[in-house]
Structure formats: C-alpha cells, structure tokens
Design goal:
This protein has 18 helices and four strands. With about 500 residues, it is mostly helical. GO terms for molecular function: protein-macromolecule adaptor activity.
Length: about 500
C-alpha cells in the first residue's frame, strides 16, 4: 500500500524531481568550476607577482654588478701599469730623465754652488759624490727598446680587454648567485607564512633547502676576485705578449699599416690567445684507422677559468682567503671553507667551465674589440672628410637639398689613411687607461638610463650590454639546480 502510494507520487511529480535534480547537479558542477577558476586565477596572479619580483631583483643585481666591478678597476690598472712599464720605455726613448736622476742632478748643482762660495767667503760644505748619469742610447739599443715598446703596448692593451671581460663576467656571476639565493629565501619565507600556499616556489630548491648565506660567507665569496687581480692576470699577460710577438714580431716599425692591416693584426693575436691546438692522433703515432700518419687538429677554445679562479679544493683557495682576510693561510689543503662557501665556489667554477660562458665571453670580446677598432678607425686611420665631386651629388627635386647631400654615401665617406706602425704606439699605449676608466655617468642608475651608454667607459658598456652576457646572467640567476648550464666550455670551436 505504501509502495503503491510512493510510486504514484513519484509518477505525478517526476517532472519536478527531474528539473530539481538537474538544477542541483548543474549548481554543483558550476560551483566546482568557479572554485577551480578562482584557484587558477590566484595561482596565475601569484606567478605574475613572482615574475615581476624576479625581474626587479635581476635588474637590481645588474646595478650592483656594475658598481662592484667598477670599484675594482683602479686596482687592476695599477697591476697592469706595474707589470708592463710602457711609459718607462717611452720616456727612455724620448731621452727624458727618470725622476731620481733629475733630482740627483739638481742636488749636485746646488752643492756645487755652495762649494764655490759660502757665507762671508767661508768655504761651504763638501760636495757630494758624483752621480752616475745614464749615457745616451746607441742605435741598436734604441731599436731594441722600440721593439719592446711595440710588443708591450699591444700586449698590455689586448690583455686589458680580456681581463676586463673576465672580471665583468666574474663579478656578474658572483652577484647573481648571491642574489638568487636571497630571492629564493624570501619567497620560501613568504610561502611558509601564506596559508593557501599560492606562492610559486621551485620544487627542486624547496626539497633541498639550504641555510641562507651569512654576511661573512658573502664577503669571502666576493673576495675571490682577488685571484684574477693579483695572480691570474700574470699568465694572461704572458699569453697576450706571446701572441703579439708571434703576430707583430717581424713587422717593421716603419711599415705602412692600413685599417684593414690593423684589424688583421688584432684578429690574428686574438686567435692565438683564445684558441688552443687540440691534441691529434698523430701525437700518439697513429692516424685514422690506427695507421701511422697525421690528422688535422681542430682548435679548441682556451680554458680561461685558470686565470679567474684557483683550482677547486686546493691550498690556492686558502691563500685567497688568507690574503683577503689578513690572516695566516690554514695548513689544511682546502682551508677553512664552509659548506655554503664551497657550494658557491663549486657553482661558480661550473659556470666558468660551461659552453654558456664560452659563448658569452666570445660575444663580449667581439663587442669590446669592436670598440677598440672603431676608436682607432676614427682617430688614426680616417682622414678629414672631403667634399664630394659635383657630379656625385644627388639630384634633389624638392625639400632640403643640403640635408640630402649630407646623407649621400659620397659625402659621408672619408679617406682611409696608411700610417707607419710606430705611429700607433702612443695611442695603443694610452688605451689601457680608457679600458679601465670609471664607468661614471655611463651607468645612469639614478636617471633610470641603465644601458644607455652615455659617457663613461665604452668598453665596459659594450660588455655590460652584450646580449650573450645578459643571457648568461639570466641563466645563472634563474637556475635552481646545477644542471642549468651546458658543460664542456673548452669544446667550443673558434671561427676567425
């Protein structure tokens, strides 16, 4: 009876039941969709905020890098001027007396005057012993000095460009590694304080969270630029000197040099500095297929890491820490290197042995060498602009005829000069001061003009604004593990 009544009621109200059930199901589905959409929008918003924060910190790291690198320029310049005394050779060739000899001669003259007549006719004090004066240089000695000046001037300038590139990338990588750690710690702390866990955190880093780097570790890590400035630059100077000797050793000082010749000299010296001959199978006494013979060698990109960083986990690292802290070097081969500092040094070494670093260094060298070439082209190899012949002027039917004439190729061109090689030496000798000049107004941080290149150091601006260098910084800053770089930087091939 009850079942019959219930069945009858269901039949009578089935349309209402179906309609109500449909609305309930639709409402449930809609509520789930809205909840998912809200979570998605919240996650996207958090990701956008994280990206903006990351970009802001990355820009600030670039500013810190510029100031930190510029603070080291005077120390590097002093080392280079002391190691290769080009100005001293120039003074000797010009017949100028060193300061000590000039002062001695002045003292000798004053003493002679005192001896010749004292006060009231009394004899003066005894004359000092005669001072040995440097004899004039003979022809062969002058020629040797000229050749030494030629080699040292070019070698010092080229080495300066290489050291500037290495130092810039080194400081940039150090700042990026420290800045990345600070950024990750900040977002992890924010994630712990956020109940809904909407902060985007790299999973790999969150799972292997390390303690933050303290101020002492930061100072020790940044102090490793000392190695390049005080130790690593010396073998790089010698390599540059060897490359210049191989390139310009047989070039006479009076030989006319065009701009194309100058470019060729620089490129040949670069090839010798940047490329190493790879060992061939002929060195093992075997050719292809195991037969004796010769195999062409493929140049490999030089391992510049040896000039930038000491050997990992050796006493050289302890020497750096001792030199920068003023303490005695530890007896332990690895020194008192904390785990956090060891991790930073390991990742720094990984960066400088990667293909990404080799690509960035090659690109920044191209940019900075281009600055050198362009400066010499305009200051030394380009004569005054000559007005074009009348028949080469463009035909102007309207508008400003003078503007059209100035924009024509004939008016813009200028004759290319041919100058003796010796003429280049004063300019190439002074270039080292331009390479290590203060970036100054070229940084333009206060006006928000970072990277505008207004004033300052054109060489550093070219390096800092190079796309490959910026990409390397982005890779280092955004890399959460140690697998974000391509290893094997020595395998990059040179193309000259």
């Amino acid at each position: 009876m009850v079942l019959s009544a219930l069945s009858s009621a269901l039949v009578r109200h089935q349309d209402t039941i179906i309609y109500t059930s449909g609305i309930a199901v639709a409402g449930y589905v809609m509520a789930g969709w809205l909840a998912g959409k809200i979570r998605e929008l919240s996650t996207v918003g958090a990701a956008d905020r994280a990206r903006e924060n990351l970009a802001r910190r990355f820009a600030r790291n670039n500013q810190d890098t510029a100031w930190a690198a510029a603070a080291l320029f005077p120390a590097v310049l002093g080392q280079l001027l002391e190691a290769m005394r080009v100005e001293e050779l120039t003074a000797r060739l010009q017949g100028k007396q060193p300061a000590a000899v000039g002062a001695a001669r002045a003292a000798l003259s004053a003493a002679a005057a005192t001896v010749s007549g004292g006060v009231d006719g009394k004899p003066g004090s005894p004359a000092p012993a005669p001072v040995a004066v440097e004899q004039p240089l003979d022809k062969d000695a002058k020629l040797r000095l000229w050749n030494d000046l030629k080699i040292l001037a070019f070698a010092r300038t080229l080495a300066s460009v290489y050291i500037l590139n290495l130092l810039s990338i080194l400081v940039q990588t150090q700042i990026c590694l420290l800045g990345r750690g600070s950024y990750l710690e900040s977002i992890l702390s924010a994630d712990e304080e956020t109940p809904d866990k909407t902060v985007v955190v790299p999973v790999a880093f969150a799972e292997t969270r390390r303690s933050p780097v303290d101020a002492q570790t930061e100072r020790e890590f940044l102090s490793f630029s000392w190695y390049l400035i005080n130790v690593g630059y010396r073998p790089l100077l010698e390599r540059a000197r060897w490359a210049v000797e191989e390139t310009l050793g047989n070039v006479a000082l009076k030989q006319p040099v065009t701009f194309d010749d100058f470019v060729t000299y620089i490129e040949n010296a670069r090839a010798k500095i940047e490329l190493d001959e790879a060992p061939s199978s002929s060195a093992l006494g075997r050719g292809p297929g195991g037969a004796a013979g010769t195999t062409p060698t493929t140049p490999q990109f030089h391992a510049f890491v040896q000039y930038v960083l000491p050997q990992p986990e050796t006493s050289a690292e302890a020497d750096v820490l001792a030199a920068t802290s003023g303490t005695q070097s530890p007896t332990s081969p690895t020194g008192d290197v904390s785990p956090s500092l060891r991790r930073l040094l390991r990742e720094l070494h990984l960066t400088f042995t990667s293909v990404d670093f080799a690509v960035a260094l090659r690109s920044s060298l191209d940019a900075s060498i281009e600055v050198l070439l362009s400066q010499f082209k305009t200051s030394t190899f380009t004569g005054p602009t000559q007005p074009p012949p009348p028949d080469t002027l463009p035909v102007v039917t309207g508008g400003d005829a003078s503007a059209a004439a100035l924009s024509s190729p004939a008016a813009a061109s200028a004759p290319t000069l041919s100058v003796p090689l010796a003429t280049l030496l004063p300019r190439i000798s002074k270039t080292v001061h331009t390479v290590w000049s203060s970036p100054g107004a070229g940084l333009g941080f206060e006006m928000g003009m970072m990277g505008t290149g207004m004033g300052g150091n054109p060489y550093y601006e070219a390096i800092r604004n190079d796309a490959a260098v910026r990409s390397l910084a982005a890779v280092v800053f955004a890399r959460w593990g140690e697998d974000g770089l391509m290893e094997g930087g020595d395998d990059i091939r040179g193309e000259f």
